[in-house]
Design brief:
CATH topology of one domain: Rossmann fold
Strand order of the largest sheet: 12-11-8-6-7-14-15-24
Number of helices: 21
CATH architecture of one domain: 3-Layer(aba) Sandwich
Largest sheet: 8 strands, mixed
CATH class of one domain: Alpha Beta
Distance between the termini: 29 Å
Radius of gyration: 24 Å
Strand content: 15-25%
Structural class: alpha/beta
Helix content: 25-40%
């Protein structure tokens, strides 16, 4: 924990949407009378039929139900596009920056309307109806935004799958959502390399029970792909026949908007379900206040739309606010290691929102790649995905922001829909590494292992005591799992799965996951998912996966692997296992370190003692605690002796 405090610059306190006094006043009002506060905020979107009910939420065991604005009707695409046309038809809605710096384009709200309507008509012509699930497996191209908004326009539920996921991961998400149509591209482009998206969809089709009904293919590279008669259609052919007008469907506030699959601790990814109105109100208000968005700002969130950050803070929040949002296809280091900063100069970006893993990797290349660019347009920096270590925070502030840009270090999750704990740039003194204070309407509590609420400065598990409008409503098709995962550990509270400490100033410091989920480069990965992939390999008898501190990624993936009798550890086998996991899940799940272990530390009941494995992986084996309860305490000595992350003498 750092003692450094960065004061709010006077100019920021003066012109921001909220200074400290206003934050405190609004926060107090939002907690004292949530109905009144959120009724007022509900007016920031347009309604076809206005709501009369605001909050109707229960966290009671066996009766978890969350509803906001439930008797109102609206449409998300209408709010993100149509309602801006009268005053913003010529304003840029999306700046698209291609993987290759020579490719970029600006899409106005007027053009966005036409493109979204065309895409909506293409979906309708291919049999998509209100309530149908549509899987989107696209690169970061404008069509990804058009497709998502087109689904929202006609009441279809989109399920975006990150383009880096493997055919197996894609197939499981198509199957779980019972999606009949997939929107993809011939290929994606990342860092000058092509990604075989259509080929992956073809491979996934073979794994989906009953197959995929329709595949709509966007031409991105012109690469050679096979098209299956009767199943596959080219988007450009279909769009040529489609009208540029499509009426938005009237949606109930609690109609589903999208599914987004996130790793769970039990292996099977969970379909997080977000609904229409509460989600949009929440992403709009957080985008306005956290990023202090004012008309004319150029705002850039570097996430991929395959993650919730892309949904909430590239697309829905900014467009609901009539903003100009930048969408980037590439990676931070291509074609040069200065690419992020070059894009900022090229498009005069004012607000830059990225992940600590990107900051840490760029920090490793030194200051010169940053300082050779101007970055004069920047006024605010943001961080998302995982806690940012104070050293990276200070570098980001000093080198990227020239010591003049506040940093909003935001904490939230796929499940929360939007930012829950965060500084507001005109209101909050900053402490490097702290997410600082709760956003309006958010009631964080820290509890001990028994669920007792701790007061004052303390450390424990982070829960949220009351519902907020952006909260997920259920796990798709499995409400029981929703209740068990988030509400059973601490009854009547939403359990975040994160550890946290609160300091004497009431600032919150997220300490990382307390369940079997690791955070790799800001992306959550269930350890059970990686273990399942390893055990599926014919040479592997058993596997246990834990996280360990990684200088760039935050957490790396450390796998302990026990081989089948007769199999011998080798470098070839190690490489084979890494490749196998990449194929099963995707490159993001590749183990960084594999330790071949003759046995794993288990209790007599057969439970793997992950606490011990974590400590060894962290090279902190001096504090393993009591190992006498293990069935075979001797395995621990072997694990320490052969650990892969040696920094200390064994």
């Amino acid at each position: 924990m750092t003692d450094t405090i960065h004061d709010v610059p006077a100019a920021w306190a003066k012109k921001a949407w909220a200074n400290d006094a206003k934050y405190k006043k609004m926060y107090a009002a939002s907690i004292k009378d949530p109905d009144k506060f959120w009724a007022e905020q509900g007016k920031r979107i347009d309604w076809f039929k206005p709501f009369t009910k605001v909050k109707n939420a229960s966290y009671k065991p066996g009766k978890v139900a969350i509803k906001w604005y439930e008797d109102g009707t609206t449409n998300v695409a209408y709010n993100c596009v149509d309602r801006h046309l009268a005053t913003r038809a010529k304003q840029t809605a999306i700046i698209w920056e291609g993987d290759d710096p020579s490719e970029s384009k600006k899409i106005s709200y007027g053009q966005l309307y036409t493109e979204v309507c065309k895409f909506a008509n293409v979906l309708k012509a291919n049999g998509v109806k209100k309530g149908d699930r549509v899987t989107i497996y696209l690169p970061m191209i404008p069509e990804a935004a058009y497709a998502m908004l087109a689904c929202a326009r006609i009441g279809a539920i989109h399920s975006v799958v990150f383009g880096g996921f493997s055919p197996d991961s894609l197939a499981s998400r198509i199957e779980d959502s019972d999606s009949k149509i997939v929107i993809t591209a011939d290929e994606g482009l990342r860092g000058g390399r092509s990604v075989p998206l259509k080929k992956n969809v073809d491979a996934a089709d073979a794994k989906v029970k009953g197959g995929i009904g329709k595949v709509v293919v966007v031409k991105r590279t012109g690469g050679n792909v096979s098209m299956q008669e009767g199943r596959d259609v080219w988007y450009h052919d279909e769009a040529a026949k489609a009208s540029g007008h499509c009426p938005p469907v009237e949606m109930k506030a609690e109609d589903p908007l999208f599914l987004l699959y996130t790793s769970g601790s039990t292996g099977k990814p969970k379909g997080v379900l977000h609904t229409t109105a509460g989600y949009l109100v929440y992403t709009a208000i957080t985008h306005q206040y956290v990023f202090d968005y004012h008309d004319g700002d150029i705002y850039w969130c570097t996430a991929d739309v395959g993650w919730v950050t892309g949904h909430s803070y590239i697309l829905y929040g900014p467009l609901a606010n009539g903003a100009t949002t930048l969408m980037f296809e590439g990676i931070p280091t291509y074609p040069t290691i200065s690419r992020f900063w070059e894009v900022i100069d090229k498009h005069k970006v004012n607000t830059f929102y990225t992940a600590p893993t990107a900051i840490r990797s760029l920090m490793g290349a030194g200051e010169e790649p940053v300082t050779r660019t101007k970055r004069k347009s920047l006024r605010l920096l943001g961080s998302v995905g995982e806690p940012i270590n104070p050293e990276a925070w200070e570098w980001y502030h000093r080198v990227v922001g020239d010591r003049r840009c506040p940093i909003v270090d935001t904490w939230w999750q796929t499940e929360t829909g939007g930012i829950l704990i965060t500084p507001l740039p005109g209101a909050t003194k900053l402490k490097p590494g702290s997410a600082t204070r709760p956003f309006f309407g958010v009631r964080p509590e820290i509890v001990d292992a028994e669920g007792k609420v701790l007061e004052g400065a303390c450390e424990g598990n982070l829960v949220i005591a009351e519902s907020w409008p952006g909260q997920m409503r259920t796990v798709y098709g499995d409400h029981k799992r929703f209740e068990e995962t988030y509400f059973a550990t601490y009854p009547n509270k939403y359990f975040t799965g994160d550890g946290c400490r609160r300091d004497a100033d009431g600032y919150y410091w997220i300490t990382g996951r307390v369940d079997d989920v690791i955070n790799v480069s800001g992306h959550r990965m269930g350890t059970a998912e990686v273990e399942s992939a390893l055990v599926a390999h014919p040479s592997v008898s058993e596997a246990a996966v834990v996280g360990y501190p990684h200088d760039i990624k935050g957490q790396g993936i450390y796998a302990y692997v026990t081989l089948m009798t007769g199999e011998k550890p080798s470098e070839t086998l190690r490489k084979d296992l890494v490749a196998y996991v990449r194929k099963e899940i995707g490159p993001i799940a590749s183990p960084d370190l594999i330790q071949f272990a003759p046995g794993l530390p288990k209790t007599r009941s057969g439970k793997i003692m992950r606490r011990i494995l974590r400590k060894i992986a962290e090279d902190e084996f001096g504090a393993l605690g009591d190992t006498s309860t293990l069935a075979d305490p001797a395995v621990v000595d072997d694990l320490i002796e052969n650990r892969q992350n040696k920094r200390k003498a064994g």
